[in-house]
Amino acid sequence: MADKLGKMIDQLWFRVQLFIETSGGRQGAGELSERDFILLDYLDRKGEAGFSELSDFFKKVSPSTMSGTLKKLNQKKLVARREDPRDLRANIFSLTPKGRQSLEPVRQSQAELSQIIADSLQLTPEESNLVAEAVVRANKTFDKWMGLSDLLEPDKPDEHT
Predict the structure, then answer these.
(1) Is 155 left (phi over 0), alpha (psi -120 to 50) or beta?
(2) Which of 40, 114, 138, 154 is deepest in the core (most CB within 10 A)?
(3) E strands of 25-157, at which residues?
(4) Are the C-beta atoms of 156 and 139 separated by less than 8 Å?
(5) 3-class DSSP state for residue 72?
(6) For the stretch 49-77, what's the b/e string if a residue is b when 16 or more beta carbons lie within 10 angstroms of its beta carbon?
(7) 102 phi and psi angles, rounded to 5 deg
(8) What is the overall mean pLDDT for the chain?
(9) What is Dmax (Cα atoms) for the chain?
(10) Is 147 left (phi over 0), alpha (psi -120 to 50) or beta?
């Protein structure tokens, strides 16, 4: 059963990636890279974060690359930077209104696609609840693997019904 499910998830993953690529990807994000978009999305979800927290979130990104990315986003006025009052050597980063606005076209596309998929599955309310529970469990697994359990707000299956 697990082997079959793994194959099904792999096939779904391929189709999602293919759809994103062939439908223009994150076109609405303008000149933002995938990393830029995820960083802005993270700041929007968190409110604000210090450099070390962002570096911890992007484990495979070197501190110098993270610094350059934040500097670029700050220059584009997508991210605000201020001194950390607890440590004047450190900075706190937050999303600007312009940064939040840059996320909207992509989020709208994602919401539309999610709704199309949900509608096309024609699930009963019971089936929908089962899928929502499975998605919540998958998200918790990813959070645990990535060390995000305490960083992102937990999903609630009742929000998906």
Answers:
(1) beta
(2) 40
(3) 48-50, 79-84, 87-95
(4) no
(5) helix
(6) bebeebbebbeebeeeebeebbeebbebe
(7) -70, -20
(8) 83
(9) 55
(10) left
Report the C-alpha gap between 10 and 15 in whole angstroms.
9
User: Among 65-79, 97-111, 135-149, which stretch is predicted with the lowest mean pLDDT?
Assistant: 135-149
DSSP state of 159: G
For every residue of 114-132, which 3-state class applies, written as one string?
Answer: HHHHHHHHCCCHHHHHHHH
- CB count in 10 Å sphere of residue 156: 10
| Orientation angle between helical segments 125-146 and 97-121, nearest 10 degrees | 140
23, two tokens:
């439908």
Give tens-digit pLDDT for 9-62.
888 888 877 877 776 655 555 678 888 988 999 999 889 999 988 988 888 888
Q: How far is it, in rounded angstroms, from Cα 102 to Cα 24? A: 16
Who's near 56: CB < 8 A, 6+ residues apart? 147
Task: Report the predicted TM-score, pTM, of the whole model to 2 decimal places.
Answer: 0.73
Q: Which residue has the higher pLDDT, 55 or 157?
A: 55
Across 122-147, b (16+ Cβ under 10 Å) vs e yields: eeeeeebeeebeeebeeeeeebeeee
* CATH numbers and ranges of domains, the chain: 2-122 (1.10.10.10)
